[in-house]
């Protein structure tokens, strides 16, 4: 498994790609698979760790991103012969190595950072097996082997009572994430708002967020670690996720559900796939709709919300989905190569139900 | 041959890496070799052209450097089986593909842009055959197959009379290149200075250069194309190359010599290998030394200067050096692989004398 090296695996704070790589690697090891994780040297894993970068390039200014990425990706592909399948959780760059090895590559597309990287995905569409992280994020030009929603460790989140009397914004401070819209909705709903997350757009933060922060009606608590996040989610009446972009997936959305906290979201990107209206939250079209939903959210059954999160977004479900896909890819590959599947190392799909599409890329 | 895709091959203006790739590719084709040049789509060559990038990323803002570089390098390595040898004129990134193919890779190290890229060269030192572009640029940590000085098309430069009554600065406007020092030397020598080149350091240009530009004693003519460069070199009393860094090679230095124009240089980096004092110019230690050398330069034999440039820095010599090295690498590789050299495609070293070191990297 080739992880991103922007952050450690698992990330100390922000780092959704690294979080997914961690959850998947640990889950596969727990199921008895022989996993090598290519990640930063300070990563924590029960898999075999191979590191070229001492630390994440977003965390250590002495780490040169371009140099370390090149060594990191090459290290994995140079050892391709040792693996039945390569799980690429990195980005587009590993794709250009994929024709040089015979090991099949399954690429989880964590989102298109820009239209400019599409030519690489198109050029290697016949080689790699793409995984979409939501149906909404499937690009019409690409062939996908499956859609696999992310899963989280539901038990890492306490069932919250939602008795803090506040609404919560949890995510990057950026116009895409709708921080300012959340402030407006909380004001109109007559509830305080807690804003938590890293600042990804300084100008927006200074102009649209900070002027409203008064430590009372709007509190900004900065980036939060797991413990504080758990407390904040558990006490919130609802999570406000009023995004202004087609978000491929929202880890904070399913984390909120795991705490029992309903999510009020704009129905963009993957939101309609994640939020079940009236059960785990509401999909709303505008600020008045969101204000109305705040009152309704307080009446939802938080235990049922958490139960739904466990049923649909537990780590075990994601790991089983990937296990099933990897097994199928390895089997197909062996059939093409005309040899047997080394069943000892990658098992067949187990009994855990998965949401793996029937179609594999036609090669 | 894998060229840089910052600019077209050959470059319209600035682009020393692309210039060397062009000169070498054309020279090898002229000697009967079957050459495929991986470069931008607008490149001009007699070799087979393979392009992934429509244009140079420094020339066309719609070209994404990281995406195009990845596709460009992979395209070459995916076709490695078609080639006896890959000539890497790019930079460090192709090295990380080199263990995934069996074709030998000869990497011309055009200079270390930063100490940060050294780990890649170190990690692949046992795989690639490094070529230094001057002995001065050899890094103690690396193994080199040869030092091969760049060559130029001497006949593209007219023998100049040096009768313009001015000194010339030709290069990037940057503290490394000593533009301000050249202005000071010209002032003390009592001669006008013409400054030609692209601005690579805006602040330096505004603070240290522009205040002296009066259109008379100091003229700034911007970047120059081949025709204007030829005229400027031909009319100059001397070229002032008072660099403040260890320059791996100076194409403008040997171009000046080709025009018959002596070079006054600080003895840093490769300068002692390029300038023959009293014949093609002078190596000086400080501003007073440079001022003294200006008077002496006017007395040098410009025909002898040009003759020396032709003897040591003609394109033919460079092409023959690379041809000899490639042949040796291919032969060694075939011996290791236990099969014959395909003599049809890459000939043995010819009769043209070369400056190829006896030592190949020990693999």
TrEMBL record, chains A, B:
Q: What terms describe the molecular function in GO for this protein?
A: transferase activity
Question: Pfam families attached here?
Answer: Glyco_transf_4, Glycos_transf_1
Q: Which SUPFAM superfamilies match?
A: UDP-Glycosyltransferase/glycogen phosphorylase
Give the start-end ranges of region Disordered. Answer: 341-363
Q: Taking every annotated instance into account, which residue ranges of this chain make up the domain Glycosyl transferase family?
A: 163-287
Instruction: Give every Glycosyltransferase subfamily 4-like N-terminal domain span.
Output: 18-139
| Keyword Transferase annotated | yes
Q: Any idea which UniProt keywords this protein has?
A: Glycosyltransferase, Transferase
Report the InterPro entries cross-referenced here: Glyco_trans_1 (IPR001296), Glyco_trans_4-like_N (IPR028098)
Name of this protein: Glycosyl transferase
């Amino acid at each position: 498994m080739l992880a991103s090296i922007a952050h450690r695996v698992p990330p100390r704070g922000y780092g959704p790609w690294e979080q997914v790589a961690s959850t998947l690697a640990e889950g596969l090891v727990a199921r008895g698979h022989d996993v090598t994780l290519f990640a930063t040297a300070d990563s924590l894993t029960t898999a075999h760790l191979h590191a070229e970068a001492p630390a994440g390039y977003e965390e250590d200014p002495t780490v040169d991103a371009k140099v370390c990425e090149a060594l990191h990706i090459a290290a994995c592909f140079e050892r391709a012969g040792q693996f039945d399948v390569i799980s690429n959780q990195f980005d587009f760059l590993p794709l250009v190595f994929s024709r040089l090895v015979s090991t099949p590559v399954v690429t989880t597309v964590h989102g298109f950072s820009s239209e400019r990287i599409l030519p690489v995905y198109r050029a290697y569409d016949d080689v790699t097996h793409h995984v979409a992280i939501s149906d909404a994020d499937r690009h019409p030009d690409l062939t996908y082997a499956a859609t696999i929603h992310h899963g989280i460790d539901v038990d890492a989140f306490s069932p919250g009572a939602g008795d803090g009397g506040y609404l919560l914004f949890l995510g990057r401070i950026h116009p895409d994430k709708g921080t300012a819209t959340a402030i407006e909705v909380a004001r109109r709903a007559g509830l305080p708002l807690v804003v938590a997350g890293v600042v990804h757009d300084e100008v927006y933060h200074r102009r649209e967020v900070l002027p409203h922060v008064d430590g009372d009606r709007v509190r900004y608590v900065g980036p939060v670690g797991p413990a504080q996040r758990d407390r904040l989610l558990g006490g919130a009446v609802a999570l406000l996720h009023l995004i202004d972009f087609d978000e491929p997936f929202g880890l904070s959305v399913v984390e909120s559900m795991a705490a029992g906290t309903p999510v009020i979201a704009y129905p963009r990107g993957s939101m309609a796939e994640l939020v079940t209206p009236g059960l785990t939250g509401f999909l709303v079209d505008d600020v008045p709709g969101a204000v109305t939903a705040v009152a309704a959210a307080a009446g939802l059954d938080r235990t049922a919300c958490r139960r739904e999160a466990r049923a649909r977004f537990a780590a075990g479900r994601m790991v089983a989905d990937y296990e099933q896909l990897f097994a199928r890819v390895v089997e197909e590959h062996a059939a093409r190569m005309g040899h047997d599947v080394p069943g000892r190392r990658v098992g067949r799909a187990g009994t855990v139900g998965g949401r793996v599409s029937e179609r594999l890329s036609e090669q």
